[in-house]
Amino acid sequence: MNIYFSENIKRLRKERDLTQEALADFLGVSFQAVSKWERGESYPDIEMLPEIAVYFGVSVDELLGVNRAQNEQEILSIIEEYDNLSDSATKHEIIMDAKEKFPNDFRIQLRYMADLAFRNNGRDFKEQLPKIKAIYTNIQNNCRIDTIRICAKRYLAAYYNTLAYNKDSGITHEDCEEILKEMPYMRDGQEFLRSYLHPHDTDNWRGYTMEAVEEEISLLCHGISHLFYVPNEDNKPDELIHGVQTEINMLNLFYDDGNYGRAWRNIIFSYGYLGYLFAKTGDYEKGIQYLKHEVDLAKQFDALDRITIMHSTFFEGREFDKHTLGSTFVASSRVKTLLEEKYPLPDEFKATPEFQEIIETL
After folding, report:
1. Strand partners, 308
2. Please, which residues bridge with residue 270 across strands?
3. For the whole model, what pTM was predicted?
4. Distance (Å, rounded) from C-alpha 354 to C-alpha 327?
């Protein structure tokens, strides 16, 4: 049985904003004794444990951390389920239960922060902003895991960016920029550094390098989409078409076996967006061509086993778990919604037999 008393008492003391001297005075011991407990150099007498537990409002087992391994397994299970879902309502239910059961776990706090920030797209900022700031401050001040602290910065920056468009929120783009200034550059990310610094004569190095390449492809797709998709489409249709075609060509180059790994969403939606752009500019033939390709790829994705092995030149032997994109993500259903409701396709185009045939296949 592992004992985590030193970590727990230090955490509990800090959560209550107590000094070692204040806790020592209450327990009738020297502050040097408390300091040794927190460093794991000694432990209090067993008779004192109930008194300490009552003071902090926890059980002796919680104080000692004897259930930590069991709790850790449950937390990891919750996180896996939560991260693999795309349905926001279900995710909300899961994280609300989790934060009640494990209120002090920073991984749970981080996901609760994301739920508060993004579930209603900032519309309820008057209620949620103080909560989000409190969680953010707690993570920055008390969490020792940099990945969680940086991710919290990303969530807060994204939330500030949303609120900056609401003049009543009191948040500006400058507030967002101040958070971004504190974050690392791309080159400091773990995927890149691990692929670069990990010993090249080990079995893991090739897998780490593939992971880095996929992450870089994902970031490049996001960059292309922001560079070309954000401007007013009425002004630059040719540039938009060029940007989307470039992204598609790049993805087909890297994923030359037809299994697009983490980029499945990108390739499916890029073909659909390109079809919409051609339809909008009056080239109905190319519009139908690319929308058909979008539908074919969606069906191909849905037919995949959950776990597949990739065989492209760049990713030979890499395992892909389709639940990485969300365990509830059904591509053909999403594409049908895009075609019928989301793409602002011309009514004349939607009335063509070719378009109706595409819809019928879904």
Report:
1. 320
2. none
3. 0.72
4. 32
- Among residues 75, 131, 68, 65, which one has the least CA distance to residue 99? 75
In this structure, the answer to whether residues 316 and 334 fall within a common structural domain is yes
Decide if 297 contacts 271 (C-beta within 8 A).
yes
Q: Residue 28 and residue 326: Cα distance in Å, rounded?
A: 54
Tell me which of 120 and 67 has the higher pLDDT: 120
Place of tokens 């909300």: 92
Residues 233 and 345 both lie in one domain: yes
Are 112 and 135 contacting, i.e. CB atoms less than 8 angstroms apart?
yes
* Phi, psi for 194 (deg, rounded to 5): -65, -40
Please, are residues 342 and 272 in contact by the beta-carbon 8 Å criterion?
no
Same domain? 253 vs 336: yes
**Apex CA 262: angle with CA 272 and CA 228, to 5°?**
45
Burial class (CB in 10 A: 0-12, 13-18, 19+), 82: buried
Higher-confidence residue: 362 or 270?
A: 270
CA distance 296 to 135: 44
Q: How far apart are the first and last CA of the chain?
A: 55
pLDDT digits (tens, 9 = 90+) for 312-328: 999 999 999 998 888 77
What is the C-alpha R_g of the chain? 26
- The number of folded domains in the chain is 3
- Which region among 81-95, 280-294, 333-347 has the lowest average model confidence (pLDDT)? 81-95
Interval 211-230: pLDDT, tens = 999 999 999 999 988 887 76
Alpha carbon separation from 118 to 49, 182, 183 (Å, rounded): 42, 22, 20
Task: Label residue 1 by pLDDT band (50, 70, 90).
Answer: very low
- Pair 332, 266: CB distance under 8 Å: no
- Distance between CA atoms of 224 and 205, rounded to whole angstroms? 28
For the chain, count helices (H), then strands (E): 19, 2
Which residue, 13, 44, 64, sits at the end of a domain? Answer: 64
Quick one: angle between helices 31-39 and 5-15, nearest 10?
120
- 3 state DSSP class of 165: coil
